[in-house]
Amino acid sequence: MKKEMICIVCPMGCHLEVNKQGEEYTVEGNKCKRGQEYAVKELTAPTRVVTTTVKIKNGNLNRLPVKTKEAIPKDKIFECMKLIDSIEVTAPIHVGDVIIKDILGTGVDLVAARDM
Amino acid sequence: MLKYDVVVIGGGPAGLAAAIEAKENGVDSILVIERDRELGGILQQCIHNGFGLHIFKEELTGPEYAQRFIHKLKDMNIEYKLDTMVLDVNEEKIIHVINEKDGLMVLQGKAIVLAMGCRERTRGAVNIGGTRPAGVFTAGTAQRFVNMEGYMVGKKVVILGSGDIGLIMARRLTLEGAEVLAVAELMPYSGGLTRNIVQCLDDYNIPLLLSHTVIDIKGKDRVEEVVIAKVDEKRRPIPGTEKNFECDTLLLSVGLIPENELSKNAGIKIDPITSGPIVNEAMETNIEGIFACGNVVHVHDLVDFVTGESKRAGKNAAKYIKNQLKKQGKIIDTNPGQGIRYIVPHEIRLENIEEKLDLFMRVDGVYKNMDMVVSIGNKEIKRIKKKHLAPGEMESITLSKSDLSQDGVLTISLKKEEL
Amino acid sequence: MYDVAVIGAGITGTFIARELSRYDLKIALIERDTDVANETTKANSALVHAGYDATPNTLKAKLNSMGNPLFDQVCKELDVPFKRIGSLVLAFDEEDIESIKELYERGIQNKIPNLKILSKEEVLKIEPNINEEIKGALYAPTAGIVSPWELAVALAENAVDNGVKLKLDSKVTNINKIDDEYEIYMGKETLKTKYVINCTGVHADKINEMVGSKTFGIHPRRGQYNILDKSAGNFVNHTIFQAPNKLGKGVVVAPTVHGNLLVGPDAEDLDDRENKSTTNERIAFIRETARKTSKNIPFHETITSFSGLRAVPSTGDFIIEESKDAKGFINVAGIESPGLSASPAIAKYVVKILKGITDITENKDFNPVRKPFIRFMELSNEAKEEIIKKDPRYGKIICRCEMITEGEIVDVIHRNAGATTVDAIKRRARPGMGRCQGGFCGPRVMEILARELNIKITDVTKDSKKSYILTEPTKN
């Protein structure tokens, strides 16, 4: 099996060519080793980092930007959004503060992306 | 009149990096002027990730990336003024600024760094016909509303333009519960990063309509419908291909324009292709001691490159103040050749190159398997193989001082790959 | 019970209301939109014509030549930008030369002062950017440029200052004549008045037919325009017309009073009286037509386009008279070009008609002067410093393209006939009129509007009642 894809690990956007022979994957076109990991993962268990906002009280803005610290399974994005949309935090918050620990049992924390 | 060594106009990523770098190079008296309520510029609304891979070797969101520079600026005790607007700058480097607290202030910098960023092209600039209802936003304005102010701009959305902000907003609005019907792109290729097409459109099954444009907007009070048509190779709508999309919102991501009204009024020469100042290797404009960096010079797609370029401007502003910037010696002009739209910088004073120099450029179309060839005079000095080139992805080439030892104009062009 | 109800708050209606407020009358100014100056008044060539164009002895000719000299004083009283920059009608061949000579003759009959036919060299000396193929031009030094919507807003404000009741968002659905009175139905409200003045532009025939038989018709003629950035504002120094010929009247290239460049209009007869769309074909047409004036107009610096509807009367001339069927009902209809130029004179003319119907006495308290509007960027450095000290909101630039301060925006919200929508603020103080078209300042203007009117930001509208901008808070 041969599949072409674009690496989304970084903005370089390498054009990858993935070959599967038996259980072995060979990846071409990647400029770094993360491209190799990405290609295999994208074919087996795709994940994405979720970046969004949460409601914040007493902040200088109405919303605080947050992100999942690591990528979470792609099929959990909307469930994750539902949870994130239901909470409200209170300023002051510091960049990196954990907003939701181990979101949806993924083992990944949701963290603040700025001070507020 | 308040006097500073370096006055930086703009507290976004460019201004922050330039100010920090000037300080690290021994300048003490620095002022950063920011018109918004906080530092960080447009990064504060770019809550998606993908920033910092070059500079920090990790993937950050826009606010995180900005936060690092803001912390550093504050740690270094660099002075800044928020909610402060520059009214004008002149050749003598005298600056009029206003804010609520200090009123009208007259400042003078020994050096000035212009870091005002860019603005979005609008409906008017691209001439989309139809009515004038509410619900037509530039993508960046919508991004600010959604991400910072916390308000939705619509429920059913069509996006014109597949630049990065357009793509990012397609995903963002989808995550916040809106329905994005399509992203239309006038050109036969996307103007954004390919990875954004994958993770912003493909992931959410949002169709990308290449070679399509919006030809009509309908709706009396609020957008009710937009009409999209296919375009021919000359970008003219093809009759009979019109399709109506029922929606309440149209987002426009149809290009960014460096914001150079201050520069023009100061007498700074502008490159008609980039719409930004003509700069030399030090990021210095035609007015001695006035530097420029970031999106005010040319629109970047990666903030990391903005930071790199702005550090160069900050460092050279410091050198200028210390009289270390050399005006004499050999000058090499750069010239975009076949397939290249522009090159920054426009001029290289060899005496000021320490070890190497980064040149930034954009290509004029989508290419596969090409050689990027750098030559000075008639002599080829570098050849880089490129599997994939697109106007949406800025290219850079690093040259060493010895590369530049030839005589003549430096030309970069695309040539068919030599096997 | 009102003495006079003026229906329609465009340039004619506001001028008439303000002129009538010089007298002891109870006056209502009725407008269907959420703001005054919101239809044809905001979408026209913004020219004060010298007056050579109209056929001698028509109302158009008489009122244009009477109206033009009145602009200096009224714009001074109301603090509205007006510049007498002069106009040129370009001739490109012998036929055009004949045509401008004819205009010159007509101008003499219409008593237009200081008209002159210029040679090619004389024209190119004062307008170096125009097409070198010209053969000559008619020069009219008394022609001017004005901001029609700012003038109408100022007139409305001054009228309200002097006691006129402004009723916005009040669409007239019917009018009943009962004995010597009129009942005007406006949906939620009914108003009684002795006299009615119908200034309803493209709808004037329909309003007239609410009280009488069809004595005239109005049809909409759309015109489209491009507005270019201020960087192109000095492209020409005068209002530049093309000599009319068999192919049409050509298009105007003119600086605006705020320093932009205006190009347009075309002329397109429509059936739909609400169709103010722009079309790509027509914009392409005006650009092509303008190339005759100059091949180098920098259209890549276009910041917006717009269209407006002229109210074309079936009679060919302005219709300004008491209805034959309904005493005390005065039509002011068919006010197409040169309507703006004639508007100060139209107001005086209407007062004369009313005086023929009833005795009116002067309002001794009438104050013709509007509270000056502080345009921050036009102040000297000292004055800038002073005003920020007095009101720090003038130290905060909200619109970075036009350099408009928060002070100016707050001011236009709290005046009489004040702004309640984003577009209304734009018309009065200009945030969003510049090259970014409100991209940066839009959110800030909405915030200020919500705060000052004490409404939710999601209730802030662009223009009409239903033109909401934001749908709801995220994560609602």
Task: Describe the secondary-structure layout.
The complex is a heterotrimer of chains A (about 120), B (about 425) and C (about 475).
Chain A: E1 2-6, E2 15-21, E3 24-28, H1 33-44, E4 47-48, E5 51-57, E6 63-68, E7 72-73, H2 77-86, E8 88-90, E9 98-100, E10 110-112
Parallel strand pairs in A: 5-8
Antiparallel strand pairs in A: 1-2, 2-3, 4-7, 5-6, 6-10, 9-10
Chain B: E1 2-9, H1 13-24, E2 30-33, E3 49-51, E4 60-61, H2 62-75, E5 79-81, E6 85-89, E7 94-99, E8 103-114, E9 118-120, H3 123-126, E10 136-138, H4 139-149, E11 151-152, E12 156-160, H5 164-175, E13 179-185, H6 194-201, E14 208-210, E15 212-218, E16 225-230, E17 243-246, E18 249-252, E19 256-258, H7 261-266, E20 290-292, H8 303-321, E21 331-336, E22 340-344, E23 347-349, E24 356-363, E25 367-376, E26 379-389, E27 395-400, E28 410-416
Parallel strand pairs in B: 1-2, 1-8, 2-5, 8-20, 10-18, 12-13, 12-18, 13-14, 21-28
Antiparallel strand pairs in B: 3-4, 6-7, 7-8, 9-19, 15-16, 16-17, 21-23, 22-24, 24-27, 25-26, 25-28
Chain C: E1 2-7, H1 11-20, E2 27-30, E3 47-48, H2 59-67, H3 71-78, E4 82-83, E5 87-91, H4 94-109, E6 116-119, H5 120-126, E7 136-140, E8 144-146, H6 148-161, E9 165-167, E10 174-178, E11 181-186, E12 189-198, H7 204-208, E13 218-228, E14 239-242, E15 252-255, E16 261-264, E17 268-269, H8 280-290, E18 302-313, E19 319-322, E20 329-333, H9 339-357, H10 381-390, E21 397-399, E22 404-405, H11 406-414, H12 422-429, H13 442-453, E23 472-473
Parallel strand pairs in C: 1-2, 1-12, 2-9, 5-14, 12-20
Antiparallel strand pairs in C: 3-8, 4-8, 5-7, 6-7, 10-11, 11-12, 13-16, 13-17, 13-18, 15-16, 19-20, 21-22
Structure description:
The complex is a heterotrimer of chains A (116), B (419) and C (476). With 116 residues, chain A is an alpha+beta fold. Chain A folds into 2 domains: 2-44, no CATH class; 51-112, CPE0013-like (CPE0013-like fold, Roll). Chain A is 19% helix and 37% strand. Chain A has 2 helices and 10 strands. Chain A has helices at 33-44, 77-86; strands at 2-6, 15-21, 24-28, 47-48, 51-57, 63-68, 72-73, 88-90, 98-100, 110-112. In chain A, strand 5 and strand 6 form a beta hairpin. The longest helix of chain A has 12 residues, at 33-44. Chain A starts with a strand and ends with a strand. In chain A, 37% of the residues are buried. The model of chain A has no long low-confidence stretch (mean pLDDT 92). The N and C termini of chain B lie far apart (63 Å). The model of chain B has no long low-confidence stretch (mean pLDDT 95). Chain B has 8 helices and 28 strands. Chain B folds into 3 domains: 1-120 and 256-325, FAD/NAD(P)-binding domain, CATH 3.50.50.60; 122-254, 3-Layer(bba) Sandwich (FAD/NAD(P)-binding domain), CATH 3.50.50.60; 328-419, Immunoglobulin-like, CATH 2.60.40. In chain B, strands 1, 2, 5, 6, 7, 8 and 20 form a 7-stranded mixed sheet that branches. In chain B, strands 10-18-12-13-14 form a 5-stranded parallel sheet. Chain B has a 5-stranded mixed sheet with strand order 23-21-28-25-26, with no helix packed on it. The relative contact order of chain B is 0.13. Chain B is an alpha/beta fold and 419 residues long. In chain C, 57% of the residues are buried. Chain C is built from 13 helices and 23 strands. With 476 residues, chain C is α+β, with helices and mostly antiparallel strands. In chain C, the strands form 5 sheets. In chain C, strands 1, 2, 9, 10, 11, 12, 19 and 20 form an 8-stranded mixed sheet that branches. In chain C, strands 13, 15, 16, 17 and 18 form a 5-stranded antiparallel sheet that branches. Classes of the chains: A alpha+beta (116), B alpha/beta (419), C alpha+beta (476). Chains in contact: A-B, A-C, B-C. Chains B and C meet through strand 7, helix 3, helix 4 and strand 11 of B and strand 18, helix 10 and strand 23 of C.
